[in-house]
Write a structure and sequence with these properties.
With 625 residues, the chain is of the alpha/beta class. 44% of the residues lie in helices and 12% in strands. It contains 28 helices and 17 strands. The longest helix has 21 residues. The protein is globular.
Length: 625
């Protein structure tokens, strides 16, 4: 019988609840975690849909620890593997990863240790796992389970398609007796069907925990000057906090990162075009230092498991609501208040529609991508609760507003826009269905520019008929008409033309609701709302929380680890509020497991002793005998 080298109690404490408490430091399971774990331990397969930060990893980590054999975790990103293995090692769990970042000798050593049963969990990329040599190694290894993380990568309609994921059906064929669990935070119903079909999970039990992330505030603002807007957003709402800024192109990533640095924000670029060593250095700074902002391309997965990302800002549209949900889900994984902010304009909708049309994809693929883009644009233009719109896309209904998005906090002024839309659509037709929104707006407001006069559109019947709105207002109307699919975008020159859906509106057979863009002043856009963000409202608690964070950073730097691997902010906030005085009391704090208590307990109790006294009190921390 093979024996794993655990630093936590075994085998008498291999009950899942005991592992949850002694290893991970949590008192209770969340949501459906317990049901998933019990199902896997009984030998069943599972498909798990759980929001980012909802605790998916515990669903396979605990069963792998609880039973004999190694749990093989398929992960698409090297950075994510390394992050998770570092965190598990700090908990005393025997974990490793095998990927292209390792030397041949190191990889062989880990594989030999796998054969000897010395690991609870081994993380591997799908490309590596499906090689004949690695599959042969697995056949000689005692296996506890297979966990297929980011399972939406199997779907050709998904935002993160990885062809290698489709080869993972080999696990069903070659290891029929080993339980498999596929996990994702983003999968609409078609994607779920693809996961089940391609991974042969027809008999798997489905666990759907819902997609809501109530701690994230959603906000979409009209794009004016994206860089300046992002700077104000970060400076006034998230100064000194870690965050991620997404842009569409590598060039824009470099430009925005340089701009933010010039304005005093500690911002670093991160995209596939950077030298590998530079990219790795930037990633390590983001993980290990306080308050670093990463600027990355929306097409490049950062693979970051950092729990204290306080904001995700999009300066350009992502490709779909799935991509948006996945990217914004990197904020607030610790459950503390965080923000998803997006700057969106007419040009974004036009550009992405052009990219879809210009692609070499099949007609079916283009239809799917247009449908997904339409759903995203609908989210941007909605007057409803944004959270309700997003959840409905994933098949989850919400009966009331969330109270934590811009449309709930500042209700949108929606109006009967039928006549306005008719003027805008008629203007597209009367000018030849070949011009962009800016030119069309000039015609409607009666601006006799040189170009308008040259094209004789100052004589068009629609010239000057739009006095009820200014130029910016008409640009907003055209943005909404593009979003709703009433006008199409020419893939070559970007001009607007009427779609079949426009004619019922033009003929008065269909009414249309439009929204007025908010007339936000700069101060309105940057309104601070960072109160109680870490769960510490009292000034004395805040001072103690800062001292605990300083101690955490000191330890993390000495051990060359990200600070959150020591303890999450949420754990430190609970320490600051409850002020434990003994190791036994410290062990009751959520996130303090046995290994971390032994390794770090005394250092943090020292801080609580010296910084945590109540005014006028000489009570110190009492150490356990």
């Amino acid at each position: 019988m093979s024996i794993k080298l655990h630093e936590h109690p075994r085998p008498s404490e291999n009950d899942p609840k005991r592992i949850l408490e002694s290893v991970f430091g949590y008192r209770e399971f969340r949501g459906q975690q317990k049901l998933v774990i019990e199902h896997l331990l009984s030998g069943g397969d599972a498909l798990v849909l759980m929001p980012t930060g909802g605790g998916k990893s515990l669903c396979y980590q605990i069963p792998a620890i609880a039973q004999e054999g190694v749990g093989i975790v398929v992960s698409p990103l090297i950075a994510l593997m390394q992050d998770q293995v570092s965190a598990l090692t700090e908990l005393g769990v025997a974990a490793a990863f095998v990927n292209s970042s390792l030397s041949y000798e190191t990889a062989r050593k880990i594989e030999d240790e796998m054969l000897r049963g010395r690991y609870d969990l081994v993380y591997v990329a799908p490309e590596r796992l499906t090689t004949p040599g690695f599959l042969t190694l697995l056949e000689r290894t005692k296996l506890a389970l297979f966990a297929i993380d980011e399972a939406h990568c199997v779907s050709q309609w998904g935002h993160d398609f990885r062809p290698e994921y489709r080869k993972l059906d080999v696990l069903h064929d070659r290891f029929p007796g080993v339980p498999r669990i596929a996990l994702t935070a983003t999968a609409d119903e078609p994607t779920r069907r693809e996961i089940i079909a391609h991974l042969h999970l027809g008999g798997a039990r489905r666990f759907v925990s819902g997609f809501d992330r109530p701690n994230i505030r959603y906000d979409v603002v009209p794009k004016k000057n994206a860089k300046a807007q992002a700077l104000r957003f970060i400076r006034f709402r998230h100064a000194g906090q870690p965050g991620i800024v997404y842009c569409m192109s590598r060039k824009k990533v470099d430009d925005v990162a340089a701009w933010l640095r010039g304005e005093g924000i500690d911002a670093l670029a991160y995209h596939a075009g950077l030298d590998k060593t530079v990219r790795q250095r930037h990633q390590e700074r983001f993980l290990k230092e306080e308050g670093v902002v990463i600027v990355g391309t929306i097409a490049f997965g950062l693979g970051i498991d950092k729990p204290d990302v306080r904001f995700v800002a999009h300066l350009d549209l992502p490709k779909s609501l799935e991509a948006y949900y996945q990217e914004t889900g990197r904020a607030g994984r610790d459950g503390l208040p965080s923000e998803a902010w997006m700057c969106y304009g007419y040009g974004d909708a036009v550009l992405i529609r052009q990219l879809v049309e210009r692609s070499e994809s099949s007609a079916e693929r283009k239809r799917v991508e247009h449908r997904k883009l339409g759903a995203l644009l609908g989210y941007c233009e909605t007057a409803e609760c944004r959270r309700a719109v997003m959840l409905r896309y994933f098949g989850e209904e919400r009966d009331e507003g969330c109270g934590n998005c811009d449309t709930c906090l500042e209700p949108v002024d929606a109006y009967d826009g039928t006549v306005v839309a008719q003027k805008a659509l008629s203007n597209v037709y009367r000018t030849g269905q070949m011009f962009g929104a800016a030119y069309l707006a000039d015609v409607l407001v009666g601006a006799a520019s040189e170009r308008v006069v040259r094209n004789r559109h100052d004589r068009a019947t629609t010239f000057g008929i739009g006095a009820e709105l200014d130029r910016a207002g008409w640009m907003g109307v055209y943005r909404q008409l593009v979003a709703s699919g009433l006008v199409d975008v020419d893939p070559e020159h970007g001009g607007l033309r009427l779609s079949e859906r426009a004619w019922p509106v033009l003929k008065g057979e269909r009414a249309l609701k439009l929204r007025r863009d908010r007339k936000r002043l700069p101060a309105d856009e940057v309104r601070p709302h960072r109160t109680k963000e870490e769960g510490v409202a009292d000034k004395a608690d805040r001072k103690l929380f800062d001292a605990l964070r300083a101690k955490r950073l000191e330890i993390a730097q000495a051990r060359n680890l990200p600070a959150y691997v020591i303890f999450h902010d949420k754990t430190l906030a609970e320490m600051a509020r409850n002020r434990p005085r003994t190791l036994a009391e410290l062990a009751t704090i959520s996130g303090v497991g046995q290994k971390k208590l032994e390794t770090y307990g005394k250092a943090f109790l020292d801080v609580l002793r010296t910084e945590g006294r109540s005014p006028g009190s000489d009570d110190g921390v009492i150490e356990d005998p």
